[in-house]
Amino acid sequence: MAARRVGVSSWHRVLSLSGRCGRCSSTNTALGKTVENSEDAREEIVLPRRKTWDKLAVLQTLASTVKRDPTAAHYMFQDDPYLMPRNSATARLFSLSKESGRNAAKYIIKEFPHFFDKILAEPNIPSLMPEICTPQIEGVNEEALKERINLRMVKVSVDLFDQLLQAGTPVSLETTNSLLDLLCFYGDGESTQEKESKEKEDLEESEVNASEQETPKRPPQRGLHPSASRWRENNNAERIFKIMPERNAHSYCTMIRGMVKHGASAKAYDMYTELLNDRHKADVHTFNALIAAVPFLKDRFLERWELIKMFLNHMAQQEVQPNVRTFNAVLKTLRRCGGVGRSMAVPVIKEMEALEIEPSLATYDHLLSIFYRTADLAPSSIISEVLDDVEKRSFTPQDPDDARFFISAMQVCCDLKDIKLAYRLNKAMEKGDNWKFLDMDRLNSYWSRFFSLLCMMEQIDVVLKWYKEMSPSLFYPSPKNILDLLQALDAANHLEVIPSVWEDMKQLGFSKRRDLLEELLSLMSRDQHPEEIQLAFAKCAEDIKTVHEQSGKDQAPVEWTGSALGSVTVVFSRAGRIQDAWSMMERFQQINRIPTELVMDEFLNCAKQTNSPDEAIKLVKLAASLGLPSSQKLQSRIEKEFELSEDQKKALESIQSDSDSSDDSDRD
Amino acid sequence: MKVEVTTKRKFQQLKEQEIKKQATNEQEGLNSESSTFQNTAEDVQRSKPLHPELVQAASAVASSFPRSKEQAESELLAQLRRHEETTDKQRRGGTINIRNVISEMAVKRQSPAQRGVRISNRISLEMDEDGQRIKPGRPSSRSFDSGRSLKAGKRLNIFTKASPETENALKTVSSPTIWDLEFAKEIAAVTEQPPRNGFEEMIQWTKEGILWEFPIDNEAGMDDDAEFHEHIFLEKHLKDFPKQGPIRHFMELVICGLSKNPYLSVKQKIEHIEWFRNYFEEKKEFLQEI
């Protein structure tokens, strides 16, 4: 009986999970009931309570069955194979362009709503329809003002407010406060301006991030006050504030918050003293803003800490309960307080614990920055304790700075060169929703650093496994990563993987980077390798040669350097490709460089192998023309090892005599 | 301010401890190393004269020697002086022999690691924007850092945890201001990720209302208060009409048409029927004649 009951309910589940079958739910229960009735008429039928599923339940279940494909790019790029990004710069560009396309479409719908008024879908989809942003209420009254404030029209609201005041109608305190809110938030600019500047800042920040991939340490002063000093003297907010007949705590608070947001920290502090004089109480957000503004009010570390303590004491006196953002603001300010910050950070954390406030990721981020600022002061117990806490929880965002945690933690692991901590951190990131804190740029830099650490510390097969799994679907290796990978291969003596690394380099678009090419070529040409590997290397070298020679549109070809040329020649020689090697040798004169001994020896070896004494003689001629001292040695070597015909012997001697005469002429 | 003073004192204490340690080291008889310095110190100290009786006794002993009387005498005298000095020192106890200490200290070199640390401390000082150089405090604060842990430590003791009642009282309900709305948007944007596969994209679209909700509900978006039978079975509204006759026939046709009409609401259908009733009521006189 139990089995049958289970069977019926599981059949319910099967029916409901089939998703797209489109059957009405009432028919489900009807069928279920009839089945039950026919099967089991005698016993008491207890109908199971109908389960109500969330509208997203089916889709979420289906989504959980799909894992990441390690060979494909991110889903948002899967459209046209030509448009798949190859490296991190193009990935960012494509995602931003996709977003900007969407924004352009939204802009068109907003600007020309009369083209989009036909409702074709049934039922109507409001999110795709143009939204009504024009105010409906006309006239000079308070309702109209409230509506315009709701629609976030800054200038219009201010004008209407002035009109109301001139007409003599009193505006209620609440409406004035909401107008002040609007003005302080937007800092006297318009709401669209704010969005545009924010986007520009995002772009700039991401560009800076790109350049910082080479130097992972962030400069300490960056990004502290993006909207600095945009608070003009006596702007609308201040003016309205001054002419207000009565003010309450909310007015003061919103003014303080606005001033801090737009960089007028000193004024914010004065406003706070005014608030205290009027015997009002500030709220927790105001205090958070004031604490965040402390670095701009004082310079000395101890003074900053004293000011923070003063604010906290005021909070306690005014019976304002701090929240997690209060403590995050304190720690953020302590980051800029050097040694004082280090000694005071732990008591702040203890206070948080005592008040039973759960720390957010931003808390941990600030802690790591305080204690791991310089490379030598490194108490490693802090990071393991932080990781202990982070591993246990799946975090929800509570502070905009939360997203920086994983990056800074990975940076600390790289500095400490501790691979176990890095593994723990990675596991913590994959837990629950924590992965969502890393957006595309941050994900790239996070994995970049992790991969560098892996290359340094782990065995080569582990490194290669991670490499195959993670790139290019999750992150795009940076040039530094490729260098690290090459060094790791070198250390583990796995140089046969180099041709596939070269393929990846070409795909990533690094094929013109001089440092990578030098490293690659020197690794290939350093030692003698078995036959197939040499042939593969030679193919690689040929590719590199074409890179150096082709001039793409508007691009100057990569210049040959002496070492690169020599390495290519050596690789060709070892693979037995004498003609290619000779063409390389000819180029030496073009770039005014001299081939080294090794190069010439290898060339001769190759000539001997392929039995081409002509080439050998050409080499000696070249050496003589360049006036190299080793030409004699080469000549003797040729005479010993090669079977020369009469003509060749004569040619050889003539070279020698030429060189002798040129030597004599030099001596004179 | 407070921090500075205590660290200075600490450093002085450390310095004194160092000096004491070195003095005790010396007293334990460093005969092997840097004996030359000791000797020079002793040479300097030789200005203190010995007891005249001792000198005479020493010379008497020396004269009893068979050869090199002067050498023996000088040796004996030197040994006596050494005895004097050690007794003096030990009588004085832990007082510091500055010259020895300094000479000792001059020999030792600063280890490169220490120098590196001091330089890096200086560099980090320069990076920190503090106007004052808390240089003397640096070595002592470093010793604190190495043992720092998040578990051990005292709290600030500024706040007290509010009891739940006061917490509830403090939570005042007010409509969210623009600050709150924008902050909520910012927070939501922190963990916003583009969809990773087609299903997540469909989830996003369903949330926005672009995609239909599965299983498909025929009546999605239709807000009709009445059930289907109220639309179709409209005979009960014909109660007031005559049961037979052409009017009834006509009304039944009207009802048939209305029941097939999906565009009118039930109210509108009832209004239709009402209108017909009123119309026929008015025309009753004419109809009676028929």
UniProtKB/TrEMBL annotation, chain A:
Cited PROSITE patterns: PPR
Keywords attached to this Swiss-Prot or TrEMBL record, sorted alphabetically, are: Mitochondrion, Repeat, Ribonucleoprotein, Ribosomal protein, RNA-binding, rRNA-binding, Transit peptide, Translation regulation
Where in or outside the cell it occurs: the entry states: Mitochondrion
GO CC terms in record:
mitochondrion; ribonucleoprotein complex; ribosome
The record's Pfam families line, in alphabetical order, gives: PPR_3 (PF13812), Rib_mS39_PPR (PF22330)
Region (Disordered) location:
193-231, 649-668
The name this protein carries in UniProt is Small ribosomal subunit protein mS39
Ranges: PPR repeats: 248-282
| Source organism, top-level taxon | Eukaryota
Tell me, what is one Gene Ontology molecular-function annotation carried by this entry?
A: ribosomal small subunit binding
Q: Does the keyword Nucleotide-binding apply?
A: no
Q: Name one GO biological process term.
A: mitochondrial translation
Q: Which family does the record claim for this protein?
A: Belongs to the mitochondrion-specific ribosomal protein mS39 family.
Q: What is the lineage of its organism?
A: Eukaryota, Metazoa, Chordata, Craniata, Vertebrata
Q: List the Gene3D superfamilies.
A: Tetratricopeptide repeat domain
Write down the InterPro entries for this protein, in alphabetical order: PPR_rpt, PTCD3, Rib_mS39_PPR, TPR-like_helical_dom_sf
This chain's source organism reads Chrysolophus pictus
Predominantly, its location class is mitochondrion
Automatic annotation (TrEMBL), chain B:
Q: Where is the composition biased (Polar residues)?
A: 24-42
User: What Pfam families does its record include?
Assistant: MRP-S31
Q: Where is the protein localized?
A: Mitochondrion
Which keywords appear in this protein's UniProt record, sorted alphabetically?
Answer: Mitochondrion, Ribonucleoprotein, Ribosomal protein, Transit peptide
- Give the CC-aspect GO terms: mitochondrial small ribosomal subunit
> Would I find Ligase among this entry's keywords?
no
Question: Locations of Basic and acidic residues compositional bias?
Answer: 1-23
Looking up InterPro entries in the UniProt record yields: MRP-S31
Q: By what name is this protein known? A: Small ribosomal subunit protein mS31
The organism encoding this protein is Chrysolophus pictus
